[in-house]
Every structure is written in structure tokens, then in C-alpha cells.
Specification:
575 residues; alpha/beta; Rossmann fold; 15 helices; protein serine/threonine kinase activity; KaiC_dom; ATP binding; EC 2.7.11.1
Length: 575
């Protein structure tokens, strides 16, 4: 878990991780444990791993030896006082541990020491010298650097004298230190104390307590470093997993809110939704909540986001609590999404589990381990509301989950089911305030039908639309319908169609009336123009007649003048 190295776990001094510890340590190779101990177990010293039956002590110790032999070049010796060697080999084979192979390679030695109570005497010169000889031979035969003693109660079961017991216990631990062996000694949980004898924890340099609790019929394993001489360490309880992949511990990081934000914007894969956000998508590394009642399309919206991220070549992981991955893949085909090809390409991984399978902390530990190993850029949790538990624990789990994803720069998409499509203070365990963006889905029923709508309640750091938008899901994907506001508000479905038809008819009527009025005006214009032409013709005719009359008058006047001139000439000639 290299990603956790930058932040110390809760319960440690803030400057503990800033300087190298003075105490030499040996890495266990157990995911998370080396983080909370800042390097592993004390080198060359004995450590006690205690707990009740079934909490994983032997498996923890075996993993310590196997990792030392296979990863760190340190052979080890497993000395058991209860479990036979063949039983131990068979029990850990399911985790992929080939103990027989390691023994054959000289990297591991397994010895079963049968201790009979009747053979133990507390008088005379009885001591653990025989054990030291046998253990020393096994160590020298393979050059061991690590040893495991499992379990110490069996070895000291016959001692009733506390003085002798304490002396022999100190002698055993001193022998381990003198040989420079890094040791794990397992012990059974006592009544009111860490171990049955109540002394091992005092002489051990490091004490690790394993716990296996059952609450509401759900088992949760927890680990706590009780003490660690000479070193800082995480002091809280940390959930840990035991499954086919071995042991992994969840080192809860401190929620200092000092993580670096991711740059860039990621498209949702839904063009209409991107258009409602000013940058064209959500900021990378943000936490997005998609809430709504059943059937509003939450999973299909998250599937669209996953498909868009995979199309960009990004890795995505989806934690689902109500459907299997194959079912989601099949359902996504109905809107034209082929998620199967992304799974085959290694870009998409589904992790499906019922909420009742683990406790809250185990779910968180499982997510923590899977995310670190798969390294996705987008994580979907569907639905978040499926998790059950006391409100305080739910709130703490959600906070740790969001912080874990934010610290890695992962874009997280959470869905939440609510009957009324809302997340109020009593029902949402305060999760909405942790989110950077919130998309709310609603089913609107009107005129005997149901329409899907969405709107963006908040989107930190960006401008966004405040409209309620209807959307449809078809083989072509998810499409947002343009917002339509009628006289009575936002209309959807057939009510929208009817209103649009009525408005289209009204527009047609207005256009027809306008055309009629234009035709009537044209007719009046043409009539007036005809009248004007007639008047103009009459005027022209009158003007022509007047010109003719004037011309005739002028001719008559000229003739009279000429006749007068002629008469005047004649009269003058007769004289």
C-alpha cells in the first residue's frame, strides 16, 4: 500500500512519519500492517500476537514467515506445539502458500513439538534447554532469520509456579534476542488480560492483539498494536481481511483534508448532462451523489459514466450491493452500452457482495485493498444506502470512504435509494454534505404516465443549470429532453406533447389569420390602385380634351385675326 505511506494512520503523532525510526524493523509483507507500524516488527526481537481462537494468529505468523522466505530473502522456522506440520501445510494451501515447496528449497523449516503435561516437572533441573537445542538446530540448518512459536500456552501449560514460569519465559525471550532472531510468538487470549498467563505481553517488545467480533450476526476482525517499544505506531483498532488473497489490514489515514486535488474535467457520457455543467462535466477527483427512488435510472446513469471513462482508457471499479456485475452488463445493453468489452479489456471490474456479508469496517477494508490493487480512476458504489448499521458508524464509514477516494484523486460516484427520491437529515446519515456534486432523480406522474427527470442540486466549484430536465433511455443511450415550461409549470410526457400540439395549432391559427389579413389588405390595395388608375385616366382624358379645345380656340382666334387683316387691306384698296 504505497499510497498510504504519505499519511500516518490515526492515533499516531503527526511527525512520526516524517523522520526515520531509530529502531531497526523487519517488514512482514502484510498489506497495511507495515504501514501502521512504520516498517513492520522489531528486528531481532520477539513480538507477541495474541487473540481468541479463530482470530487468525497462526495465519498471521505463517504469512510473516512465507513473505520473509519469498520476498525478503529471510528463511524461517515454524515451531508448532499444537498443530501438526501436515495439518499446517494443508490449512494454508488455500491461500496459495506452498510450505512443502519452501521446505524443499531450504527456505523454511517446520517442526512440531509435542508437549505432554505429565512430562513437565517443576523440580530438579527441568528447563527449556532441550527446546533451545532443537530450535537452534532448525535455525542453523537453513540459516533462519525469522521464527514462529505457536502457541506459547501449550509450552508452559504444566507450570503452576509463577516464579518459574516468569523466569523461563524471560529466558526464552532472551535466547531469541541473543540469536538475533525476529520472532512471532502466538498466545491465546486470557480472561481479563491479553494472554492466559498474563506475563507474555510484559516481556515482549511488540504486542499485537487480534480480535474477531460478532455483532448482529456479522463478523468483523480487528487488529490493534497494544505496545511497541522504541517506536511510534498506530494505536487505533484496524479492520483486517482474511480471504483467498491472504491477510490485509486497513490502515485508516488521518482525515486532515490536506490531500492534493486532481486537475481536469471528466465527461459523464451524457451530452445533455454535460451541457448542464459549465465545464462540460465534473471535476476529476470529486465525489458525486446520484439519488432517487427505485426505477429512476441511477444505475444506468452510473453505467454511462463508467462507459465514458473506459472509452477514455481509464480503469473503473464498481462495488455493487444489490445486483451482480453480469446483470448490470446485461441491463446496460438496453441503452446501447457494451460494458462487457471493457471488462474483457481489463478496464472495468465489478465487486459484488450483499451488505450483510461483512460489517461496515470489513466492507471498507475490502474496498481499500481492491482499490489499491486495481488502481482505478473512477469508483462507483451502488447503492450506498444498502449499507446498514448504527448511524454514528455509518457516518464514520462514509467519511472514511470519501477521504480514502479523495486522497487518491479518484472520481467517486455514489448512488442512494430513497423512496421519496430525497436525502434528508434523518435518512441520509449526513452523506450529502460530504459530496461535491449531487444529482437528484425524480419520477413525475401526470396524465396516467410516469416521466423521469433530473436536476443538479449542487456542483462545487462550477456553474450549473438549475432546470429540471426530463430524460429518456433508449437503445441510443440516455438523452435529455429540452426543458419545456408551460402555463402551469414544467410539463413532461404526453402533457408536454398535448401542450405543444395546442400551441402549434394556435400558431397555425395565427399564421392563417395573418395570411387572411394580408390577402384582404392586398385586395383593398389593388382596388384602390384600380380606382387611382381610373381617376388618372379620366384626368388624362380631360386634359387631352382641354388641350384640343384650347387648340381649336387658338385656331379660331387665328382665323378671325387673319380675316380682320384681310378686310382691313381690302378697305384700304378701294380708297
Amino acid at each position: 500500500m504505497a499510497s498510504e505511506s504519505a499519511s500516518p494512520p490515526e492515533g499516531t503523532p503527526k511527525d512520526a512519519s516524517k523522520s526515520a525510526p531509530a529502531l531497526a524493523k523487519v517488514a512482514t509483507g502484510i498489506d497495511g500492517f507495515d504501514t501502521i507500524t512504520f516498517g513492520g516488527l522489531p528486528k531481532g526481537r520477539p513480538s507477541l500476537v495474541c487473540g481468541a481462537a479463530g482470530c487468525g494468529k497462526t495465519l498471521f505468523a505463517t504469512t510473516f514467515l512465507v513473505n520473509g522466505a519469498t520476498r525478503f530473502g529471510e528463511p524461517g522456522v515454524f515451531m508448532s506445539f499444537e498443530e501438526r506440520a501436515e495439518d499446517l501445510v494443508a490449512n494454508v494451501a488455500s491461500l496459495g502458500y506452498d510450505l512443502d515447496g519452501l521446505v524443499a528449497q531450504g527456505k523454511l523449516a517446520i517442526d512440531h513439538v509435542r508437549v505432554e503435561r505429565s512430562e513437565i516437572e517443576e523440580t530438579g533441573e527441568y528447563d527449556l534447554e532441550g527446546l533451545f537445542i532443537r530450535l537452534g538446530f532448525a535455525v542453523d540448518s537453513i540459516g533462519a532469520k525469522r521464527i514462529v512459536l505457536d502457541t506459547i500456552e501449550t509450552l508452559f501449560a504444566g507450570f503452576s509456579d509463577e516464579t518459574v514460569l516468569r523466569a523461563e519465559l524471560r529466558r526464552l525471550f532472551g535466547w531469541i534476542k541473543d540469536r538475533g532472531l525476529t520472532a512471532i510468538i502466538t498466545g491465546e487470549r486470557g480472561d481479563g488480560q491479553l494472554t492466559r498467563q498474563g506475563m507474555e505481553e510484559y516481556v515482549s517488545d511488540c504486542v499485537v492483539l487480534l480480535d474477531n467480533r460478532v455483532e448482529d450476526q456479522i463478523t468483523t476482525r480487528r487488529l490493534r498494536v497494544v505496545k511497541y517499544r522504541g517506536s511510534a505506531h498506530g494505536t487505533n483498532e484496524y479492520p483486517f481481511l482474511i480471504d483467498a488473497e491472504g491477510i490485509s489490514v486497513l490502515p485508516v489515514t488521518a482525515a486532515d483534508l490536506d490531500y492534493t486535488i486532481a486537475e481536469g474535467v471528466a465527461s459523464t457520457g451524457i451530452p445533455g448532462l454535460d451541457a448542464m455543467l459549465e465545464p462540460g462535466g465534473f471535476h476529476r477527483g470529486t465525489s458525486i451523489l446520484v439519488s432517487g427512488e427505485s426505477g429512476t435510472g441511477k444505475t444506468m446513469i452510473t453505467s454511462s459514466m463508467i462507459a465514458a471513462a473506459c472509452a477514455r482508457g481509464e480503469r473503473c471499479m464498481s462495488f455493487v450491493f444489490e445486483e451482480s456485475g453480469d446483470q448490470i452488463i446485461r441491463n446496460a445493453r438496453s441503452i446501447g452500452l457494451d460494458l462487457a468489452r471493457h471488462v474483457e479489456a481489463g478496464l472495468l471490474r465489478f465487486e459484488a457482495a450483499r451488505p450483510s456479508l461483512y460489517g461496515l469496517e470489513m466492507h471498507l477494508a475490502r474496498m481499500h485493498r481492491d482499490i489499491d490493487r486495481f488502481a482505478p480512476t473512477v469508483v462507483v458504489v451502488d447503492p450506498l444506502s444498502a449499507l446498514r448499521g448504527p448511524p454514528a458508524e455509518l457516518q464514520a464509514t462514509m467519511l472514511r470512504m470519501v477521504d480514502m477516494l479523495k486522497s487518491r484523486g479518484i472520481t467517486a460516484v455514489f448512488t442512494s435509494l430513497r423512496e421519496d427520491g430525497s436525502l434528508d437529515h434523518d435518512s441520509n446519515i449526513g452523506v450529502s454534505s460530504l459530496m461535491d456534486a449531487w444529482i437528484k432523480l425524480l419520477n413525475i406522474e401526470a396524465n396516467g404516465e410516469r416521466s423521469r427527470t433530473l436536476y443538479v442540486i449542487k456542483a462545487r466549484g462550477m456553474r450549473h443549470s438549475n432546470q429540471v430536465r426530463e430524460f429518456s433511455m433508449s437503445g441510443d443511450g440516455i438523452a435529455l429532453v429540452e426543458a419545456y415550461i408551460g402555463p402551469a409549470g414544467v410539463l413532461t410526457g404526453t402533457a408536454r406533447v398535448v401542450q405543444e400540439a395546442e400551441e402549434a395549432a394556435a400558431v397555425l391559427r395565427r399564421e392563417q389569420e395573418s395570411r387572411r389579413r394580408r390577402r384582404e389588405a392586398e385586395r383593398r390595395r389593388q382596388s384602390l390602385e384600380r380606382q387611382i388608375d381610373e381617376l388618372r385616366a379620366t384626368l388624362e382624358a380631360a386634359a387631352e380634351e382641354e388641350a384640343v379645345l384650347l387648340s381649336e380656340d387658338e385656331m379660331r382666334e387665328a382665323m378671325l385675326t387673319s380675316e380682320r387683316r384681310i378686310l382691313s387691306t381690302r378697305r384700304g384698296g378701294t380708297r
